[in-house]
């Protein structure tokens, strides 16, 4: 999971999935949405770090929603 690559478009989709899973105000949801909108290296790094700190069940659920 550490080598997971998430592009800007995927971050937007992950933000939508996490809105359902964790809520729109969750820090990771906000970070992913911001990174998707701005695309800056700093925002992308912050979003990826926040995503990796989620519980494995939350990460897996969000990723499963992207596949489905």
Q: Give the N-terminus to C-terminus distance in angstroms.
A: 19 Å
Number of strands: 0
SSE series: HHHH
Dominant shape: globular
Q: Could you report the average pLDDT, rounded to the nearest whole number?
A: 91
Low-confidence stretches: none
Strand content: under 5%
Largest sheet composition: none
How many domains, in number, for the residues? 1
Structural class of the secondary structure composition? mainly alpha
Radius of gyration based on Cα positions: 10 Å
Helix count, DSSP H or I runs of 4 or more residues: 4
Helix content: over 70%
Short précis:
The chain has one domain (8-67). It is 75% helix and 0% strand. The protein has helices spanning 8-21, 27-38, 41-53, 56-67.
């Amino acid at each position: 999971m550490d080598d997971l690559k998430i592009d800007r478009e995927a971050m937007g989709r992950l933000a939508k999935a996490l809105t359902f899973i964790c809520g729109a105000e969750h820090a990771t949801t906000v970070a992913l949405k911001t990174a998707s909108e701005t695309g800056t290296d700093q925002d992308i790094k912050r979003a990826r770090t926040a995503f990796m700190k989620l519980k494995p069940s939350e990460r897996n659920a969000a990723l499963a929603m992207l596949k489905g």
